[in-house]
Structures are given as structure tokens and as C-alpha cells.
Amino acid sequence: MLAKQLESPKWEPKPIMLAGNTDCYQPIEAKKQITRKLLEVLLRYRHPVSLITKNSLILRDLDLLKKLNDLDLVHVSISITTLNEKLRQKLEPRTVSGKKRLEVVKQLSDAGIPVNIMLAPIIPALNDFEIPELMKAASEAGASNAAYTIVRLNGSIGKIFEDWVRKAYPDRADKVLYQIAHCHGGKLNDSCFGTRIIGEGNFAANIANLFRISKKKYLSGRKIKPYNYSHFCKMTGKQLGLF
């Protein structure tokens, strides 16, 4: 299906993101290898790709990522929520540790692959104060850039999160829920474009300032290299030309 889309006469090369709604390196990928097969197609067509993950399985595909990177066709974002293992085990129990994710950042960066750090989600009163530590660790691992999002709880996720935080952190659940709501106009959910990612109000402003100062201190002068779109080539016609 991907190859068919890329062969469309109307298709113009633009970065395709693998992940976003779900991790493209979740455990079943080790068996299905869907992400790897997509990367193989994108490499064949010399097409730019972006990946977001919080799992170390991405290193399995380092060979393909290196080849894509040689043509300036790949950007990788590693999501790191916390370096506090107790929090990570409660918040993301089926993922690798923050320390392991930093090792992934280092291996990718050592291979010359541009790596962006996603501090996501930032949860007020749970992990927001870790921003400087996370940024420092990411810098030491070789990250080229960083971004963040404030947690927002769409639809039924709000009730699920509230139940979780009251069980996991009963001593500060009210504080966490209050600050999240304060970042989204008094509601746990915010679907308004422009504010849903970074929030609004005093708590959101404090997080934004802490992120800005930390990024300037630890990632100053670094940036993600741009994609090269000139390599893109369709297989149709090229294959026919062999005959």
C-alpha cells in the first residue's frame, strides 16, 4: 500500500511519520516487522521518514536507519518521560527505562542519526520538575533537539487517568488534576489548536520557561539537519527501462 501511494503521479515527497498515535516499536513489532518493512520501502524510494518511539527495538533497524541517514532522509524522536524508575513503572509499565532510552539516543547519535527528544507528556506536579535533568542527560547522550507537550486527557481518558493517579499517588492526586485542568482552561481536555500541546495559564507558563531555559543551557547551537528531497525516485518506469 505504501509503495502504491508513492507511485501515484500526484505524490510529492514529504516526511512520513511512523508512530504518533501508537508506538511503531511496540513489542509485537519484533514479530510482525511492519515498521522494518515500511523502512525498506522508504529506502527503496529514497523517501524521507520520521520515527517516534520510546522503545529500544528501534536499534534492530539501525542498518536501515544508517542508509537513510546517509541520504539525509531520516529523523528520530525518542520519548523520555522520566528518569524516576518508580514513576516510570507506574506510568509506562511496558516500556524500557529512561536510562535505556538515553542509551538508544547515544547509539543513534553516535551513528550520526539526528535525534530529537520528546519530553512527553509533561504532567504538572509529577514530572515537570525533571525537565532540566532530562535535558542535561539528553545533551550528554548526543541529542540534537528537544520538544515537549503538556498532558491532555481526551474523552474517557480523563476518567481513566483520574482513577490511575488517585490509586498511584493518592497524596497528590488533587494537586496533579488541579494543575492539569489549570493548563487547559479549567478542563482536563483541550482540543483547541495552538494551546492543546503547550497549555495556558501560570503553570503552563512556568513549564514553558523551564523548558526554554534548560534547552538554551544544554542544547544551545544544536539543530536537526534538514531532509534532502532530491533523492526521491519512483520505481515505475525505472524498472521498465531495464527491458
Quote the distance from N terminus to C terminus: 25 Å
Strand and helix order: HEHHEHEHHEHEHHH
Rg of Cα set: 20 Å
The biggest sheet, with number of strands, parallel, antiparallel or mixed sense and barrel status, is: 5 strands, parallel
What are the segments in which pLDDT stays under 50 over at least 5 consecutive residues?
Answer: none
Task: Give the count of helical stretches.
Answer: 10
Largest sheet strand order = 1-2-3-4-5
What is the helix fraction of residues, given as a range? 40-55%
> What is the mean predicted local confidence, pLDDT?
92
How many β-strand stretches? 5
Shape: globular
Structural class: alpha/beta
Strand percentage lies at 5-15%
Description:
With 243 residues, this protein is of the alpha/beta class. It is built from ten helices and five strands; from the N terminus they run αβααβαβααβαβααα. β2 (49-53), α4 and β3 (74-79) form a beta-alpha-beta unit. α6 packs parallel to α7. The longest helix has 19 residues, at 201-219. The protein is globular, with a radius of gyration of 20 Å.
Itemize the secondary structure elements and their pairings.
Blueprint: H1 2-6, E1 16-18, H2 29-32, H3 34-44, E2 49-53, H4 62-70, E3 74-79, H5 85-91, H6 98-110, E4 115-122, H7 131-141, E5 145-150, H8 157-168, H9 173-183, H10 201-219
Parallel strand pairs: 1-2, 2-3, 3-4, 4-5
